[in-house]
């Protein structure tokens, strides 16, 4: 089993994504990456590289099609980390 | 939101980003006067955004070959290479390209875009991995998506970053295709091929290089970055286009691997499309001959490139990382880039305007492409106009 939980990953992502938040916006697991954080396709591609390095995993771009929220992204990272154990 | 409303929303966003900017894209060229000049808006304009690197678009040999092919074979093949569209000329061009690269075989595609689509989607599939440079061309992205393979990006021209990602793949490296470009189309910089080849060999991956912008430009005979670095035999597959230095339209893939031939049977962009027209094939064959014997053209091109790169740098412009046939001026915003583009057009100089997301790292570019056909006087004029306009970029 992985040493980190989905909730912990989501928490880490919220911290990492703080730079995308405008004004006083609080990022939560339910925050939508595209509509609320305005992360466009290019920003998302760059964010993925940072996530790969942070968690030391490979996140294929084709696995992102169903990722809308921070929680979706956390679930994907958790799944990849679990599979790599 | 229905399908058409989604397009309306996208159009509104684009207009909001740059209300006055839409005219810069797809501006009509009323008459082509030469390899370096055209008539736009009723005026003669110096063309500095054409990818006509060797200036062969009006070469006598190419025009005569195209005319003859039309007279003898007609205007189009009306069919696929796998059916009625496989003429002797197509086969001859493949043989000539294979010989040019001293490779076992070559496949000619109808466009350079289709060459990448067909080659990549034929080489890798579900369960395989493609490792692509962060600044990869759209045709490479689309080929990867079409393939169904896992797509992983590495930071642009960063071999250490590539190694990190190869290491993570572990045993999957043997099913991994690394894809780089000889010269990158937007910033004009070259891939660190020696480092990438070393990693490819260390991790047992396969390497494809797209020489679209480096064919005719790099290497003694113009093979591209593979020739300039002496690494031709280390690269598994080379793709490229006829639409830049060769002044035609079409694309190719060459390789020493016998398995290349199998791509003819699996690449949809090869099978399910009409083959290049006889005129295109004939002019490309003539242009390839001029290209490989065109040392003097490469010398003129590089002289012009160094002259422009050096002058724009001295004027204060922020430029792409290295001099070459593509000189990218990096601006702070789309508005600033558009302002410079308009000012250059007013002075009779056409360049390419490149805005996010087409430009790398969220930048906005004025992309200049240089030709061997540009005269020193034309380049000097461009340098002078850019120098005069520099204050615009400080606003």
Automatic annotation (TrEMBL), chain A:
Residues 3-81 form the Carrier domain. It comes from the Bacteria. This is Phosphopantetheine attachment site. It comes from Nitrosomonas mobilis.
From TrEMBL, chain B:
InterPro entries: Aminotransferase_I/II_large, AON_synthase_class-II, PyrdxlP-dep_Trfase, PyrdxlP-dep_Trfase_major, PyrdxlP-dep_Trfase_small. CDD domains: KBL_like (cd06454). GO terms for molecular function: pyridoxal phosphate binding; transaminase activity. Keywords: Aminotransferase, Transferase. Residues 44-385 form the Aminotransferase class I/classII large domain. Its cofactor is pyridoxal 5'-phosphate. Signal peptide: none annotated. PANTHER family: CLASS II AMINOTRANSFERASE/8-AMINO-7-OXONONANOATE SYNTHASE, LD36009P. This is Aminotransferases class-I. It comes from Nitrosomonas mobilis.
């Amino acid at each position: 089993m992985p040493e980190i939980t989905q909730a912990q990953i989501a928490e880490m992502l919220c911290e990492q994504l703080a730079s995308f938040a405008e004004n006083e916006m609080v990022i939560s697991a339910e925050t939508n990456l595209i509509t609320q954080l305005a992360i466009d396709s290019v920003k998302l591609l760059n964010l993925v590289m940072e996530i790969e390095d942070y968690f030391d995993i490979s996140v294929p771009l084709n696995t992102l099609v169903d990722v809308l929220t921070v929680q979706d992204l956390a679930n994907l990272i958790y799944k990849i980390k679990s599979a790599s154990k | 939101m229905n399908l058409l409303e989604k397009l309306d929303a996208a159009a509104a966003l684009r207009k909001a980003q740059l209300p006055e900017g839409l005219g810069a894209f797809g501006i009509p060229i009323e008459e082509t006067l030469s390899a370096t000049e055209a008539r736009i808006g009723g005026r003669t304009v110096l063309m500095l955004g054409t990818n006509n690197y060797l200036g062969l678009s009006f070469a006598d040999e190419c025009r005569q070959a195209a005319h003859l092919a039309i007279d003898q074979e007609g205007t189009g093949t009306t069919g696929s290479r796998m059916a009625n569209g496989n003429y002797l000329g197509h086969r001859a061009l493949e043989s000539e390209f294979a010989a040019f690269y001293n490779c076992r075989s070559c496949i000619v595609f109808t466009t350079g875009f289709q060459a990448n689509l067909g080659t990549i989607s034929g080489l890798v599939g579900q369960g395989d991995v493609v490792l692509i440079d962060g600044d990869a061309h759209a045709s490479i992205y689309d080929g990867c998506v079409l393939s169904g393979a896992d797509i992983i990006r590495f930071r642009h021209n960063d071999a250490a970053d590539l190694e990190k990602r190869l290491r993570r793949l572990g045993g999957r490296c043997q099913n991994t295709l690394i894809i780089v470009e000889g010269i990158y189309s937007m910033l004009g910089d070259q891939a660190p091929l020696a480092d990438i080849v070393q990693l490819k060999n260390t991790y047992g991956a396969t390497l494809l290089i797209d020489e679209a912008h480096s064919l005719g430009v790099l290497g003694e005979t113009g093979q591209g970055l593979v020739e300039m670095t002496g690494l031709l035999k280390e690269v598994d597959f080379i793709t490229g286009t006829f639409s830049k230095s060769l002044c035609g339209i079409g694309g190719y893939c060459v390789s020493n691997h016998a398995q290349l031939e199998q791509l003819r049977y699996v690449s949809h962009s090869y099978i399910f499309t009409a083959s290049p027209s006889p005129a295109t094939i004939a002019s490309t064959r003539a242009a390839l001959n001029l290209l490989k014997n065109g040392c003097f053209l490469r010398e003129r091109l590089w002289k012009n490139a160094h002259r422009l790169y050096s002058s724009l740098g001295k004027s204060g412009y922020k430029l792409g990382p290295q001099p070459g046939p593509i000189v990218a001026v990096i601006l702070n915003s789309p508005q600033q880039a558009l302002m410079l583009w308009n000012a250059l057009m007013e002075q009779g100089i056409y360049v390419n305007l490149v805005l996010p997301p087409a430009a790398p790292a969220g930048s906005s570019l004025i992309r200049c492409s240089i030709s061997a056909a540009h005269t020193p006087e034309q380049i000097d004029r461009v340098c002078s106009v850019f120098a005069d306009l520099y204050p615009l970029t400080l606003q």
